[in-house]
Every structure is written in structure tokens, then in C-alpha cells.
Amino acid sequence: MNIQQKGWLQKRFGRVFGYSILILTSLFLISPVFFMTVASFKFDEEYMAYPIVVFPEIWRWENYSLIFELTPFAKIALRTGVLAVGTATINALVSSMVGYAFARYKVRGSSQLFGIVVAMLIVPYIVLLIPTFIIFARLKLTNTYWPWILGALGGSPFYIFMFRQFFLGFPRELEEAAEVDGCGPFRIFLQIFLPNAKPVFATVMIFAIIGVWGDYLMARIYLSSSKTLLGVALATAFKDPQGNTMDTVTLAASVLYIIPLIVVFFFGQKYILQGVVTSGLKG
């Protein structure tokens, strides 16, 4: 066997080995969703039976109809979706403006202030939960959606970081040419920088929507059952007349719960990759 054949075999083996690892990892990550989906068609007794049977003997489609009979699923999902998209849009706009200011305007103390923003990335969310709850409670904003709206108006350290890194790569000649044409800073941002930041903006929107849609803790703390979001509603709603949890109906609701997230990620994965790659670690 000559050197060329050995090199071809090594390259072939490396490719097969790499794809094998990717396939096994993908199967491992997908398996919980697969078993949850299959179990959502079982009876509770069959779901709890041992030894475990993967596929149900009789596929119980009624589990999905029970979701809409036991809860106003569509109404709560619409409420959660509107809040998620609305706050994500606000968050992305505010974070983009702050990131633009950090990237393009160098004033005294801006580097130190940006360092404080980046330092907030390492502060655990749970540490801020109690102080922010006390603030909103004293402002009498509990059982409203203002905690989400005001949080979005403050931007996000991670999103600010992403926009700032992206805007650092823009050539100064763009701003200079726009200033010669009489454009002010806000107009330059809206007409030049923001339209070219579509990958990062879409990435931030996707992350922010998923953050609100998948949130359980804030909705549990701030909202009553009549105003709660989908995550809390699905975790507490499905019980039989005796008060026992209807496990397979809950699993069916969980399948419906994750479908919008999968759809959003499926159509937005290209923008996520572009946003992460183009943001980079410049400056």
C-alpha cells in the first residue's frame, strides 16, 4: 500500500468516524423529544408500566383534544406569543442602539462602562430575581406584564455585546460619507447600520422569543393563574377529577409547546450562525 492510498484511507476513516460521532450525538439529543412524543399517545397506565414499552398498543389521540378541553390553550399560547415577540422586538432595538453607541462613539469612560455591561454576563439570573421582584412589588407591578416590558427596555448585556462586536467591523468611511450628506447619528444608525445587522438582529430576536416562551420562573412568581404564561399553565393544569396528574396529556401539551420553538429555530438557524460568526470577538 503506497502513501497515497494510506492517506486516502486515513481521510476516509476520519470522515466516517466524524459522521458517526455526529449521528450518535444527534440521536442522543433527539431521543428525549422522541420518547416524549411517543408517550404522549399512551394511556397513563401504559406510560407508567414496567418494563417500558416504547410504542403504545393503541394510539390515544384523545390526549391532544383534552388539552383544549381542559385549558384555554390557544388563548394562553397567543398571549405568550404576543408578549414574547413584543418584548423581543423592544429588547433587540434597545440593545442594537446601545451596542451601536459603544462601537462607534468613544468617549471618556465608555470602555469602563462597557466592561460593567460585560461583567453582568457572569451574574446568575437567580441572584437578581429576589431584588427585582421586591422592586416590582413595591411599584405594584406584579400580576402585570410590565416586568417583561421594562426588562426589555433595559436591553440585555449579551445582546448589547453581540451588536457592539458586529458594529465594530463597519468601516468609518460609511459614517463619514453619511455625515457629509447631512445625516445625523440616529439616521445613520437606522438607514445604514441597522439594515446591515439583519443576521445579528434575527439572532437576538430568536433568543429573546425563546427566552420568554420557555420561561417558567418569572411567570410563576409575577403572574396569577388567570394571566399566566404557557409554561406555567401546562405544568399545573392537567388533572383528573380525583386530583391526579394526567401525565400523558401533559406530555401531549409539551409537544405542542415545543413545536413553535422548533419551527423558529429551523427557519432561523441560518441567521443564528451568521449572527454568531459575524459578531466575532473584534475589539
Reported for the largest beta sheet, the result is:
none
Query: Rg, please?
Result: 25 Å
Average predicted confidence as pLDDT:
83
The fraction of residues in strands falls at: under 5%
Top CATH class of the largest domain: Mainly Alpha
Looking at the structure, the CATH topology of the largest domain is MetI-like fold
Could you characterize the architecture of this molecule?
By secondary structure, the protein is mostly helical. The chain folds into two domains: 3-39; 70-279, MetI-like (MetI-like fold). The chain is flat and about 75 Å long. The chain has 14 helices and no strands. It has helices at 3-39, 44-48, 62-70, 73-104, 110-119, 125-138, 146-153, 157-167, 172-180, 185-193, 198-213, 217-222, 230-236, 247-279. The termini are far apart.
Provide a short characterization of the protein structure.
The protein is mostly helical and 283 residues long. The chain has 14 helices and no strands.
